[in-house]
Design a protein that fits this description.
about 200 residues; alpha+beta; NADH Oxidase; 5-stranded antiparallel sheet; 5 strands; about 35% helix; Nitroreductase; oxidoreductase activity
Length: about 200
């Protein structure tokens, strides 16, 4: 199931409404050119002072299976189960220091914007992409000698869409479940903060 538009209350752009986080992946390679397009989309994300504090460590299964397997080993066991057919892992890093070597308080926010751009580009290319916080960030940073100024925030797995029926029953059910979000009234306040009743 690749087409699952969000049941929005008002119309929004189809690229945004259509993006979701699948777990059913097909076991076939993703072209390197498609991976480069994902990174190019991320490169053009907005950032405070145009600092561009995002960095990505990319692992392609067909290009370097050993490095891919090492990176894969840092996913938590649950994420390893459904990522068996993942073809690309993109580790999203935030550069926590600015050009002057001072702390950048916007680094994680800006890196998140770049990650969303990458996810939207994946959806535009009809690729399945799923961002995960379930990984051993410190272990990854140590194993791949990531400099101290960078913090690993998430891992995005990428593949072609697969058959949800091939997933374990509980995950297949989640794959087909209706999409839901908090209401606008729950997330947005107009004119200032109003205490809950």
């Amino acid at each position: 199931m690749t087409h699952r538009p969000a049941p929005t209350d008002i119309a929004i752009h189809p690229l945004i409404a259509g993006r979701w986080s699948p777990r059913a992946y097909a076991d076939r390679s993703v072209a390197h050119a498609q991976v480069i397009a994902l990174l190019e989309a991320a490169r053009w994300a907005p950032s405070a002072y145009n600092a561009q504090p995002w960095r990505f460590v990319v692992f392609e299964k067909t290009d370097d299976p050993d490095a891919f397997a090492r990176a894969f080993s840092f996913l938590v066991p649950f994420n390893q189960t459904w990522n068996a057919n993942a073809q690309v892992l993109v580790v999203v890093l935030a550069d926590t220091l600015n050009a002057k070597g001072e702390p950048n308080p916007n680094a994680s926010y800006d890196a998140g914007a770049a990650a969303l751009a990458l996810l939207l580009q994946a959806h535009a290319q009809d690729l399945a992409a799923h961002a995960m916080s379930g990984f051993d960030a410190k272990g990854f940073e140590e194993a791949f000698a990531i400099p101290d100024r960078y913090t690993a925030l998430s891992v995005i797995s990428v593949a072609h869409h697969g058959d949800a029926g091939a997933l374990p029953a509980a995950l297949a059910e989640r794959e087909r479940a209706p999409r839901a979000r908090l209401s606008l009234a729950d997330i947005a306040q107009f004119g200032g903060w109003k205490p809950a009743d």
